[in-house]
Amino acid sequence: MVHKLCMAVALAAAVLVGHAAEFPAKPISIIVPFPAGGPTDRVARDLAEALRKPLGGVSIVVDNVAGAGSSIGSAKAARATPDGYTLLLNHIGMATMPTLVRNLPFKVESDFEYLGLVDEVPMTLVSKPGLPAATYPQLAAWMAQNKGRINLGNAGVGSASHLCGLLVQAALQMDMTTVPYKGAAPAMTDLIGGQIDLMCDQTTNTTSQIEAKKVKAFAVTSAKRLGTPALKSLPTLQEMGLKGFEVSIWHGLYAPKGTPPAVLAKLNAALKLALKDPDFIKKQEGLGAVVVTDKRLEPAEHKKFVAAEIAKWSPIIKAAGVYAD
Predict the structure, then answer these.
(1) What is the domain extent for residue 31?
(2) CB atoms within 10 A of CB 56
């Protein structure tokens, strides 16, 4: 009996090793828990292209599964077969879901394998094109004159733009009418059309609109000014008097818990190579994003970073009293 059990264990181990050795042998899916056309979707598509070469040219498709503060798509990834063929690319939502989403159907810190951070993206404070201000001081004066009548759009509860908007209101000690959308793309469409007044969103979503002069840009949320041509003239919100104001939205790559270690090692190695791809770096830098090169590319450090971010955002979300049901 013991001999048969040992044989079974050995056979199972051999199968796993064999599967890992031939990985990837079919297309890989990257779940993005936000709508197509948004900033996280854009990062995912650029990353998918950069990952193809180090993974032997395998096809990598992006699967948009939006809703509930990114928890619906993340739950789908957590429940996926742990074989390396279904991955998750999510942003700061991995740190906000535990507080933001009631009855979260998975545990962020224990139901995923962490593969490494991808990039960090500053935010920009932008307005509709017809707003009567050209500089941040002029915008501040306009906001003071229009208290109670300002519409602040975002990509939905729990989105990066929603979180940034909460911090902007808190820093200014000014309540605005928050208008949530089902994604960054429709929010940007209404901002361009003048249906909403302001939005604070990722440079990956705003840079092209700023370059095309479809929206007005007033400041960035980074600690220092950005070097991107379209954004380098913008001051930081700290320069404009919001002391200590700094927000960046990071993206990380994950696999379902239980994915074989050999497969995880291949994915992590491929990620490290992808983040050195000149085309990927150029695309990210052109959008104001910074590709990660530090120790957070290691799974353990990635996980430690997310735990610290959960601790950071939990009190902010609780204080705001917002939830994504």
Answers:
(1) 27-120+251-320
(2) 11
